[in-house]
Amino acid sequence: MKPSSHSVQTFSLVKKCSTKQNNTGLPSLATSQRIRKVNELVFIISRLNKSHVYEGEFRLPSKLSYLGLTLLLTGVVCLAFGEVNLRNVQAVQIGIQDSVWSYAYNLTDGRTYGVDIASSDDWGKPFGSGQFTVEQPVNVTITSPGGGLTTLQAFFYGLPSSSPYYKVGTPPTILYVTYQKVDDMGLTVDASSSQIRFTAKQSGPYNVSVLQQGLWSKEPPDYIMFYEELAPNKETYTLLASGGGLVGTLGGVTFIVSLFRSRGVKRKRTRK
After folding, report:
1. Is-above-0.90 flag for pTM?
2. Architecture label for domain 89-230
3. Which end of the chain is more exposed for a tag (fewer CB within 10 A), N or C?
4. Residue 54 pLDDT more than 60?
């Protein structure tokens, strides 16, 4: 019967320890202690050889898990990048008319627009002289292509002049807007915006009128301007955001499925 590796190593260790003798030819005390320790070690090893041991079989994350995580992270990055760029809009002037009480411009259904009403020099005089110390309302109407009417008040304010010789002050500008009536068939207003901002629901001319009723000046505004909010490469970033959401969802589902399929740590009973 071929001796086991444990027996061979133990025998070698005992033989090595037994060769260390004192001058009397007998093993020294230190050598005897080493032999006793070796015997105890041999006893422990023999007990282990007769007992049952368990081996842990550890499984690394599967390729399916790595694929799911990769898809999930890729989708999240694409979705975030697309959403951020879609919100990066630019105001592009599309139409302007000087010194008028009313101005109409053709708008397109589904797009977002803004209206800027600039005050004239005469509008700023009461603010520059200190006569007006709070914001003042200006009545404005927006007529949709279908004839619907939206009424609102734009509140203007300008700083008084700091010079005793120049009473104009800073030109009044719109601080905030309140809506009294909204034509829901013709537009959707952005009530949270401090400016006149809406999304057209019809294609055609939208007419903006500044009413003289209640206005402290008889002069028309300096100009009425339409501008459109545009996101550069909107189609590309919309596709990127939509695709990112789809890929991220697929990656999340794949990763969850891989977790259910994974057996984690498997304990296997073996005999030696």
Report:
1. no
2. Sandwich (2.60)
3. N
4. no
